[in-house]
Amino acid sequence: MSLFRLTRPSADEIERFVAEQALLPHSYAPVGMTRDEQAPPDWTEDRYRTVLGPGREAFERAKQLVRRWVMFELGWIELQRPEAPIREGTCVGVLARSAGLWVLNAARIVHVIDERDRFGFAYGTLPGHVEAGEELFLVERTPEDLVAYSIRALSRPRALLARAAYPWVRREQARFGADSLAAMRRGMLA
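The structure assignment produced for this chain is given below.
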């Protein structure tokens, strides 16, 4: 179960939660669904994309930002374990503050893309996440030699609160998408 609190969980609580979640299977099937271009039936699909700059140097910079999880540096969301390596099997916690609540979610990287002109990863939800599904974070060089950052999310509400407050959840998902794009654009300028 996701960790909902009125107060911020302690570092020990967060670490214990993520460690416990790491032992559990994903909370959905099929794991790896973001590899397919077609979304499975009955899943909500969100896509966000921004251009970060031109050329190989911009691409290498964008890859480093993804490796440092900069797309989660949003102020209202914090990645727990931002030093976590981008590799299959890595588990992380995502702590969000919204509507007066602290919500701690857990996810595990299910696949990594590391190609000449594409870099990123998808993570999938664990039982300790309010949603079920996968999210792909990708930087790539286009044929026009522009570097783009994109997010593709496939989700369904899992927790009772997420189902009951679905319009609010959808607003927060859109907020995350827009803020994540902005964080990557800021990262390119730093």
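Interim note for the steering committee: The radius of gyration is 16 Å. The helical segments are 11-22, 55-67, 160-164, 166-189.
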